[in-house]
Amino acid sequence: MSTHTHGAPPTNGPSLADLRKCVHCGICLPQCPTYVTLGEEMDSPRGRIYLMRAAAEGRIGLTETLTHHLDLCLGCRACETTCPSGVPFGRLLEETRGRIERETPRRGWLDRVIYAVFPDPTRVGRALRLHDLYERSGARRLLRTSRVLDRFPRLRALEALAPDRRDARAGTPLPEFIPAAGKRRGRVGLLTGCVQRHLYPGVNRDTARLLSLAGWDVVIPASQPCCGALELHAGRLDTFRARARDLAAAFPADVDWIVTNAAGCGSAMKEYDHWLDAPAARRMALMTKDVSELLADAELALGRLDVTVTYHDACHLAHGQRIRVEPRALLRRIPGLKLVDLAESDLCCGSAGVYNLQHPEIADQLLERKVARIAETGARVIAAGNLGCLMQIAKGCRERGLDVEVVHPVELLARAADRAVEVSS
Amino acid sequence: MTVSSSLVTELERIVGASGIVTSHEGRMTYECDMHVFYKGEPDVVVLPADREQVQAVVRACRAAAVPIIPRGSGTGLIGGAMAPIGGVMIGLNRMTRILDIDVRNRCAVVEPGLINLMLTKAVAARGWFFAPDPSSQMVSSIGGNVSTNAGGPHCLKYGITTNHVLGLEIVTSRGDVLRLGGKVADRPGYDLTGAAIGAEGTFGVVTAVTVRLLHVPEAVKTILATFSDIETASEAVSAIIAAGIIPAALEMLDDVMIRAIEEGIGAGYPKDAGAVLLIELDGPAAEVTVQADHVAAICRARDSLDVRVARDDAERALLWKGRKEAAGAIGRIAPSFLLQDAVVPRSKLPQIMREMRAISERHRVLFANVFHAGDGNLHPLICYDESNGDELERAKAANEELLLACIALGGSVTGEHGIGFDKARHLTLQYAEADLNFMYRLRRAFDPDGLMNPRKLLPSHPACGEGFRPHRPALPEGTWV
Description:
The structure holds two protein chains of two kinds. By secondary structure, chain A is of the alpha/beta class. Chain A folds into four domains: 16-103, Alpha-helical ferredoxin (Fumarate Reductase Iron-sulfur Protein, Chain B, domain 2), CATH 1.10.1060.10; 109-168, no CATH class; 170-294; 307-424, Rossmann fold (3-Layer(aba) Sandwich), CATH 3.40.50.1860. Chain A is 52% helix and 8% strand. In chain A, the strands form two sheets. Chain A has a five-stranded mixed β-sheet with strand order 1-3-2-4-5. In chain A, strands 7-6-8-9 form a four-stranded parallel β-sheet, with helices on both faces. Chain B is an alpha+beta fold. Chain B folds into four domains: 5-91, Uridine Diphospho-n-acetylenolpyruvylglucosamine Reductase, domain 2 (2-Layer Sandwich); 98-215, Uridine Diphospho-n-acetylenolpyruvylglucosamine Reductase, domain 3 (2-Layer Sandwich), CATH 3.30.465.10; 217-329, 2-Layer Sandwich (Alpha-Beta Plaits), CATH 3.30.70; 334-481, Alpha-Beta Plaits (2-Layer Sandwich). Chain B is 33% helix and 19% strand. Chain B has helices at residues 5-15, 24-28, 51-63, 116-124, 142-148, 155-158, 192-196, 230-242, 255-264, 285-301, 313-324, 326-329, 349-363, 391-408, 427-430, 433-446, and strands spanning 20-21, 44-46, 68-71, 88-91, 98-102, 107-110, 128-129, 165-171, 177-181, 205-212, 214-215, 219-227, 249-254, 275-283, 306-309, 336-339, 367-372, 380-384. In chain B, the strands form four sheets. Chain B has a seven-stranded antiparallel β-sheet, with helices on both faces. In chain B, strands 5-6-10-8-9 form a five-stranded antiparallel β-sheet. The radius of gyration of chain B is 23 Å and the shape is globular. The interface between A and B is large, with 36 and 42 residues.
């Protein structure tokens, strides 16, 4: 746990010692999506740290204005990547949000829906079946053409995010065990993700297959609770800790690694050791790997894909887990694939967990910017290693008429692996 | 609150609801720049989008006789962008457009909020760059660079901001728009552009800057020379300059600073070195090769323990990243620091280094050194922890003593950071009464009502604006010479 020095608040708030590491140099400012968008000091990392420190030192209370400026933070942690003094911004934000959550709890209708549904795979499934009905009945078309939702921006954001057509295989769960193909390297557990398993089941399928091809036995427990990332980022620390303990218990003890293909989940799981004392959860932090890390040195037979691809750095991969090289290197291994640079590749796309539902105006400005950068590359495919980014960028391309395919890197790798099989047979 | 609600309403009408900050929490984040020691919360912050809005804001403030404080990215080191007596702060960081890039005439016109490095990024593909490179260049604004006449590592060869500004557009406190200088280098009459550079917002609000662009040199070599201590490294600096070589940059870092950088950034500096020199040579390839050999030979002759040349651009960039983010990395060592910016004649460098060590020991405070050795501009970061007894008082005393030592050696109170709130009182050490009074009169010519950035740049004086009576502290004798 973080160490508290003199003057620290009696409650379990942010570490004053960590807050005081900020020397106010401002190097974080141009990296911050909200500062870039709003141009205001209190919506920059430096300004937010200043406010969090003022609150921790008792100069100001946990006021609505303070909460507002912290709420506007996407939690992308780009500031952490760039901070020369090593201020652990993400943790400070989560701890401060935790204090706000305890001392001045708030519950709007949207938050109630979000935290009741998203961290529960069964409820996500039910909600999506309702959504399918809504789409097939023609109600969606009616609602969109009537523009009645324009008066409810957050409801509209929720409505716009769901993809038009879902993967037909969504309902079929993966088997609980997939044996290694070829030379066996060990045994891994696969996190299927609460929303991911319903909306992008193909990504899980491809991940499992690639891991198997790379020599891993893949264990996929059918009953997997949520990793708690959404709650951690919102400062709902008690719920987060409970979920972390449950998740750790859901995986067998004999796996070498636990693999995720969702940056947000991976980032939270890798930090379990900071937040929990439970040995199983702490062990899980050390065992968690993003799929790109585990495939980085795998021998994979990859066939040719003649396509120009660009890559977006998901915040919780690039900033949260410091993973930038591996996904790019994997894509470059595909023969014929041309990987082109994306300007501002590590600037948040506006998704940020459920941020795009809570603050659609800012999220849309960031998305606009992201789509413009993608269009500049001329690439036909954009790859990103996080479910939230995939949904957000797909929505942006759809709404702006940009004909670009939005995929997880494992989908391209799986296609290349298919191609290799076709060629050899 | 010196600002009436009718003025707030008027300001909001000018800049819109999204361009004004009135909440206590919001204003609080504008109460200091990187010199967090001095705090002064503005009564209102406005974030204008263009010159017309700046002009309207300034006119409204003048009608209400309210102080005006311009601010760029808030990275200054002198307490220049804070509001000691309240007033309206004008944040220029939303005015970031590049208005014109004219490579045929080797210049560009930019708005003041544009981040320094963004200009170089915009013209780099065409082979050009903007030379002033303060360490904060990845975040500091060109308007702020102009206002403090900022320097940087490469100013040793290329000169400071004033050498790269051809023209300025300034909105004065009366709301007039002055256009000083311009694309044509030689303008008849008084050089008011020169006078307005380094004015720290006391002449008005800079709303556009015409800057010189330079062509990227053919070759660059970066050398890292390691020494056992800072005094030996200082001797090598003097020898390089005495040999008639003008490196593009000649930077010194001491052991404390190296430790902070390596912990924070991992730039590849030798962790056990007492001091390193970062020496950069640029120009035609043939010349750079010869000079690099010469510099390496000088360093070895002056007891350098190791001399290595950066193998590629990546290694070079990493060494520079370490240097540029040094002050930011100090948070790894101490929660707070005072940053000195005094200058000594280059030949006095070894002497002031010995004196600095003595001062550090006398006051029991940690000094971290990172500075432009080539032009004798010192930047010791004097570390302190406010909560640790009288450490702040000791740091302040050490800071003051070092400053006086530099002046006694024929130096200056500031090299490139500016004067601001922090060093105004020290000008009396360097200027005679008549000089300071003349500066007051010049300031009043631009700002007759005395509204622009009050309490900055010049020491305080009787309200009538004339008859300045400086208090002259007596210099302690002998201890440092």
